[in-house]
Amino acid sequence: MVFYDEPVSKDFAILDSRATPLGELTLRRRRIHSLDGREVFEVKLGEAFLMSSLFHEVEVALAERSLAELTDPALDVVVGGLGLGYTAVAALKQPRVRSLVVVEALDAVLDWHRQGLVPLGPILTGDSRCRFVHADFFALAGAPETGFDNGRRFHAVLLDIDHSPRNLLHPRHAAFYQPAGLRQLAQQLHPGGVFALWSDDPPDDEFLQHLMAVFASARAEVVTFPNPLLDRDSASTIYLARNP
User: Fold this and answer.
1) Is the model's pLDDT at 26 over the cut of 80?
2) For 106-197, where are the alpha helices, taking DSSP H only?
3) DSSP conformational letter for 125
4) What would the pLDDT profile of 84-106 be if each residue is shown by its tens digit?
5) Options 3.40.50.1580, 3.10.50.40, 3.40.50.150, 1.25.40.10; CATH of 57-242
6) Which is it for the CA torsion 214, 58, 134, 93, positive or negative?
7) At residue 239, what are phi and psi to the nearest 5 degrees?
8) What mean pLDDT is predicted for residues 33-54?
9) Ranges of each domain in the chain
10) Taking the model in full, what pTM does it have?
């Protein structure tokens, strides 16, 4: 574990870097002069970019669109993958959310939020409805008897960990995206509950078929957002599935 107290320059700083089972995980902050000096927080795993605060529209939409599907007056929600916190904060903005369990496998990411190294950390740690769980989301999803919280059912499970159902951070995640794995997750949802998934790839017909084999309904929505670095729009996919 390495904490960096001093920036490399006023425009670039490595805030934390440490080894994880998936590789070297780095949190950095930089200013982009071509975007009027906007401050951006970025997470890299090895040489690959995992996330950036510059692009968070789809993470917000993941929470907003999934919870809009529900009419329950009080909602218990699980977020799989904390990241920079955008999905979790968007969920907490909904007054109907009475509890939020955020499952994160990497203790470094939890530390960033608890120590205020990322902008949304104080919002999440300061909300009594939000609880961090240091665990493997996929292991909990595959154990419905105990599940995410001692067998408690939830109204929504929102997942943003792998790049897509095919582009995985680890091969062991693959079983979750098959019908058997999805059925174990569905058991942890209330009747009519929602499972929602972020994907960086276009809609995948085969994965939609897996969802429809388990859930009462399923669809993929493409979300476009401005990409100022490329001077054009980019797009990601949100999958929304409802329990019978």
Assistant:
1) yes
2) 107-114, 121-125, 137-141, 179-186
3) H
4) 999 999 999 999 999 999 999 99
5) 3.40.50.150
6) negative
7) -100, 135
8) 88
9) 2-52, 57-242
10) 0.93
pLDDT in tens, 142-152: 999 999 999 99
Q: CA of 102: how far to CAs of 79, 83, 196, 217, in Å?
A: 5, 10, 14, 25
Q: What backbone phi and psi angles, to 5 degrees, belong to 114? A: -65, -30
DSSP line for 24-44: EEEEEEEEEGGGTTEEEEEEE
CA distance linking residue 161 with residue 90, whole number of Å: 17
CA distance 239 to 244: 16
Element housing 231 (H / E): none
Smallest Cα–Cα separation from 80: which of 97, 98, 62, 61?
Answer: 62
Interhelix angle 179-186/205-214, rounded to 10 degrees, is 40
